[in-house]
Specification:
The protein is α/β, with parallel strands linked by helices. About 40% of the residues lie in helices and about 20% in strands. The protein contains seven helices and five strands. Strands 1-2-3-4-5 form a five-stranded mixed β-sheet, sandwiched between helices. Helix 3 crosses helix 4. It is globular, with a radius of gyration of 15 Å.
């Protein structure tokens, strides 16, 4: 796969093991929705500093949108509805905090969730519908993308190397 120029800009991030999922998120948004990357997580400004941050800001349908990316997965066992509730609650609260502290004025945020299977995606949906309070959902759109055959989204190269040894 050859990444587009916008995805190539995303290869430097604020740390952690999420660079692959973030790069493929903007690539997905560009290819599927004609999004344009405006700022990476290193370019989005906040005050006060030190809280949750947004992974990137793009233009989507002539609106500025903040995008936070996460992965719904579990190293051992099945990813349950309870796991989905914990993940969504944590990430959606982070979205609220980053929106409040951002100096960027985006229209809303998208929480882009990469899921390892359709069963995981269904559990995300069930948690969203029945367990997440409206005040936590707020103005956020949750986009769930199933990527069953894309280990690079869920495991960094270093972790994949160790897993295959």
């Amino acid at each position: 796969m050859t990444l587009g120029k916008q995805a190539q800009r995303m290869t430097v991030n604020a740390g952690g093991s999420s660079v692959e999922s973030e790069v493929l998120s903007i690539e997905f948004m560009t290819k599927c929705f004609n999004a344009s990357l405006l700022k990476t997580e290193m370019e989005v400004e906040y005050y006060p500093h030190g809280g949750s941050i947004t992974d990137y800001m793009c233009e989507l349908f002539n609106k500025k949108i903040g995008v936070s990316v996460t992965r719904a997965m579990k190293f051992e066992g099945e990813f349950t509805v309870d796991d989905a509730e914990i993940l969504l609650s944590k990430k959606l609260r982070g979205v609220l905090q980053s929106s409040q502290n951002s100096l960027e004025k985006w229209h809303k945020q998208i929480l882009h969730v990469w899921a390892t299977s359709y069963a995981v995606a269904e559990n995300i949906q069930l948690a969203w519908i029945s367990l997440i309070p409206d005040q936590v959902k707020a103005n956020t759109i949750v986009l769930v993308t199933v990527a069953q055959n894309a280990q690079e989204i869920f495991y960094s190269q270093r972790k994949r190397r160790h897993a295959s040894i």
